[in-house]
Automatic annotation (TrEMBL):
GO terms for cellular component: Golgi apparatus; membrane coat. This is AP-1 complex subunit gamma-like 2 isoform X2. It comes from Dipodomys ordii. It is a peripheral membrane protein. Gene3D superfamilies: 2.60.40.1230, Leucine-rich Repeat Variant. InterPro entries: Adaptor_Complx_Large_Subunit (IPR050840), ARM-like (IPR011989), ARM-type_fold (IPR016024), Clathrin/coatomer_adapt-like_N (IPR002553), Clathrin_a/b/g-adaptin_app_Ig (IPR008152), Clathrin_app_Ig-like_sf (IPR013041), GAE_dom (IPR008153).
Amino acid sequence: MSATTVQILRLLRILGRNHEESSETMNDLLAQVATNTDTSRNAGNAVLFETVLTIMDIRSAAGLRVLAVNILGRFLLNSDKNIRYVALTSLLRLVQSDHSAVQRHRPVVVECLQETDASLSRRALELSLALVNSSNVRAMMQELQAFLESCPPDLRADCASGILLAAERFAPTKRWHIDTILHVLTKAGTHVRDDAVANLTQLIGGAQELHAYSVRRLYSALAEDISQQPLVQVAAWCIGEYGDLLVEGNCEDTEPPQVEEEDILALLETVLQSHMSLPATRGYALTALMKLSTRLQGDNNRIRKVVSIYGSCLDVELQQRAVEYNTLFQKYDHMRAAILEKMPLVERGGARVEEEAKERQTAAQLLEEAAPAPPEPQASKLLDLLDLLDGTPGNTQHPPLLDPSPEGALVNLLDLPCVPLPPAPIPNLKVFEREGVQLNMSFIRPPETPSLLLITVTTTNSSGGDVTHFICQAAVPKSLQLQLQAPSGNTLPAQGGLPITQLFKILNPNKAPLRLKLRLTYNHLGHSVQEIFEVNNLPVETWQ
């Protein structure tokens, strides 16, 4: 009997989808099934789950949808792991359309974070992050930060990234935002995204009233642990900028520790000498030492000695930086204070879209820069300029600049620089289309880095409903290296609104055939959509 009921419910779901009148007719029937079904057996749970799916898919009444959410909330208390997983997945689908109803079950969802099953804890993490809003951000962040400290390694990156994004979106104060990011960097610094360092330095730089507080927190964290590279980089930057505040001890919010100039220099030297420090981290520390030469009042000989040591470093970037700093000490010491003055206050705002657009525009201009305009003789440009200034006609006969003789032609040919022809543009590719949601790719291979491929992924929405919580993830074969830049947003307005753009950077030194595996997740027309597919028809020009 239960199998027949399930089939009938599936048929009702098809008939009522996007049909107002049919949905109204089904409301009472679905309410009766939802309230009278016996859940002591799995067959009853199957019927109840199909009822919930039907309520979610048709245009059901608001009260009926609340009933469906409450049923899923009861499923979370079931002893069967499969039922709990189904409940978490279904609630994740409903969180956008019935946010307040799902919020009532937030304590149970948070408890599911402690599940020993990795798939359950991952679903609970996704749902917990989706439930964060401005009213519960403090409480939810405490739970998520506690989970971050004990979660499995394969979940730590997702948890850290989710906490940082939620903090950026719902932070009640700048100080709370800084504390939250510092906690994530301290506990899971190696798992955060590449832009976490830039975001935190930008946040601290724009909060003048928190400079002293931030530099003390970072100094203390760095003194305890130098293994978390993003944390070390932020701390080195902050100490270099505001090291004078660290020595002065002018911080009303915390009890100022006794920090001497020698302690600061010794800590940065430890970072430079540590085998755990990446070259980029050493670069931060070296620059911090250089800036402290103008912030601290002591003798700069110690700093000069450290900088001079790295003038013979095997790392080219560090060596170049050290040589430049040595030159600044030796030849331009009178300009050192002005060159190394504090950074101006950084304005934070919704500049991410503009930054991404600029990055894509820069990538698009690489081909134009690689394709020079037809050469025009420099003397001709000068004569034309003189003609323009004195008003003479533009048909003046200019003397030839090149010797027309064969010998002269050969000499002039040898004098000309060898300019390579620009590569032909790579055709764009449409890789996905469903219900008005379309994803297109454009490709650029910078001439100076032929092993690098820049893919701009543009997603548009021509349907009548908004697309929300859009996420595009990608994977490549192990022989390639893929870096995903942050997308310009996660919402696609209806009827051809502003698209979402995202930049993929793929390094393919061996010129292996390129394949992409994409995973798209988003909410559209009341449904949660997930698409996983491979792109095997990329143009040959993208990898040959």
